[in-house]
Amino acid sequence: MLAIHNVSKAFGPTPVLHDISLEIARGEIVCLLGPSGCGKTTLLRIVAGLEQADAGQLLLEGQDLAGVPVHRRGFGFMFQDFALFPHRNVFDNVAFGLRMAGQSKAALRGRVLEMLALVGLSGLEARQVHQLSGGQQQRVALARSLAPNPALLLLDEPLGSLDRTLREELIGELRGILRQRPAGKDEPAGITSIYVTHDQQEALAIADRVVIMNAGRIEQIGAPVALYRQPATPFVARFLGMENLLPGQIVEGAPGWLTATPLGLLRSAAGPVDAAAGDSVLAVARPDAARLVDLATRAEENLVAGQLQEVSFRGSQVKITLSYADGQRLVFDLPGAAAGDLPAPGQWIQIQLDPAGISLLARSVDAS
User: Fold this and answer.
1) Would you say 356 and 312 are in contact if contact means Cβ atoms under 8 Å apart?
2) Can you give the C-alpha Rg of the chain in angstroms?
3) Among the residues of the chain, which ranges form H helices?
4) Cis peptide before 255 (omega within 30 of 0)
5) Contacts by 308-315, CB closer than 8 A, 24 or more apart
6) How far apart are alpha carbons 133 and 120 in whole angstroms?
7) Cβ–Cβ under 8 Å, residues 218 and 20
């Protein structure tokens, strides 16, 4: 549906986007994920028509968007601050774009009530927006964005101003709303969306595909599960919360994938394409790969003993930090029930790593 070809952008002497290319299918939810300053919002604004690219091309259904003004692109927008009209009630906020488009009163009312039902606000159409909770205001902003039936919905940190508890509550609801538009003739279900966020959990929960950006470039594109299981670069691994990166050398290639590391031999479920015995790699152990085992356990694979440095209990999980004589530190998330089995910091413990929780990166990508 949308093709972005070789888009670059600089503000004065500062480059912001470097040769970005991306294709988005109809009905797909694509998240642009990355740290502040990586260029994700600039890319969204270029798609919207709020910024002009210095180079490159945008095609919507094959039509070049160069020179097409914002109001003629047929896109919907939702931003972090919601931008609701404080002097209008819920109905009038949602109806605003429909009135601008000249819809009849009957069609307008039917569409507004349909959108309010979609976002779970039926019966609140007469409520003033200042009387709503933050989550309800977010839903009004979403309903207003969806009311004109946009060809593409652009969302820039839409949950960023909400507290964490409310944000986590709305993440699943938001994906459900974006997937609810029924399929039409030759059209898949769902609203084609580009969603900008710096929150990893938000992106993984909402997106069909995630585009991870770093310093104006795309580091990796993939489905959430694929990205988490096999990050392509150290930056992606670390940004997704994987702090455990160990240099190693492959001892046994596919299908066994045995790697020598400073902590001993580690078995993994997969490795880099075309990698073979003798190749240098980085072994990435995900934080959820570990389980606590008795120090006396022997003769099993992927056993790692370390000195317990820190313990942080977080209810359903307990985060532990292990240290080693060579200065290596590993961080893992154990089930919360394991907290009662942990000794005091300073003592030694032993964990076993699930091979499915270890991925290998070719050392050629170790630039960060």
Assistant:
1) no
2) 24
3) 40-48, 90-100, 105-118, 134-146, 164-179, 200-206, 224-229, 234-239
4) yes
5) 308/342, 308/343, 308/344, 308/345, 308/346, 308/347, 308/348, 308/349, 309/345, 309/346, 310/345, 311/339, 311/342, 311/345, 313/339
6) 13
7) yes
Q: What is the pLDDT along the chain (368 residues), one digit of tens a residue?
A: 999 999 999 999 999 999 999 999 999 999 999 999 999 999 999 999 999 999 999 999 999 999 899 988 989 888 877 678 889 999 999 999 888 888 889 999 999 999 999 888 999 999 999 999 888 888 898 899 888 888 899 999 888 877 888 788 888 788 888 887 655 556 666 889 999 999 999 999 999 999 999 999 999 999 999 999 999 999 999 999 999 999 999 999 988 899 999 989 999 988 888 889 999 999 999 999 999 999 988 878 999 999 999 999 999 999 999 998 778 899 999 999 999 999 999 999 999 999 999 999 987 654 44
Strand partners, 244: 285
Question: 85 by DSSP, 3-state: which?
Answer: coil
Q: Are 195 and 29 in contact (CB under 8 A)?
A: yes
Residue with tokens 């259904």: 61
